[in-house]
Amino acid sequence: MLIKLLKAERLKLKRSPIWLAFLIMPIIPAILGTLNYSANIELLKSEWYSLWTQHTLFTCYFFLPIMIGIYCAYIMRIEYNNHNWNKVFTMPVNRMMIFISKLITSSSIILISEIWICILFIISGIIVDIQAVLPLKSILIWCLFGTLGGIVMAAVQLTFSLYIKSFAIPVGIALVGGISGLAFLAKNFGHIWPYSLMAYGMNSNSPQKIIESGYILFMFICIVYIIAFILIGSFIMSKKNI
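The structure assignment produced for this chain is given below.
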């Protein structure tokens, strides 16, 4: 049944305008980060690592949270249109599976976004003529853990979008959450705040430090958050008259 739900979600997103956000929005922080790196190249001596900090400064705290907010709000908004929730809830399927299918769909989009961000990052490094060896393994680790942190954010945003019918308000919450993630990271609480886990996983503040031992705790916290919001979202679906 989950497979059928995932296929249904894929069909709903076919020819969706959110793909424009996916293609265009990551380009903006890539340009801003590259320009910022080029303007401060005398101070930023770590080449690929320095470029990564400039890219993720704009990506993790502003653009990716907005993108995730848009993805999740759109996925839920589809069901509010034309009373689709009534059709969905008449299906012989557990409501938790419905929430999980939407989370998996959001997660797949986040993973694709991370891959696109990596491609833009590498292209930017070539444009500014970075001569150092590309730390490809590190980049892959950052993006995989960034995806996991992004899934936590998606679980939170899906819950908000399930409860709030407005499209704009959950997106605004995602933006405020992304900015708050910067504050929590600055206070060394980035590993426990759901809106800073993506930036923490991507090592946006200190990319030369691969804190492998810290990632075990990071993964545990992410899994706990994901399970918690799946339960919360499922509970709202079962009790709220949508």
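Interim note for the steering committee: Residues 48-80 form the longest helix (33 residues). The chain has ten helices and no strands.
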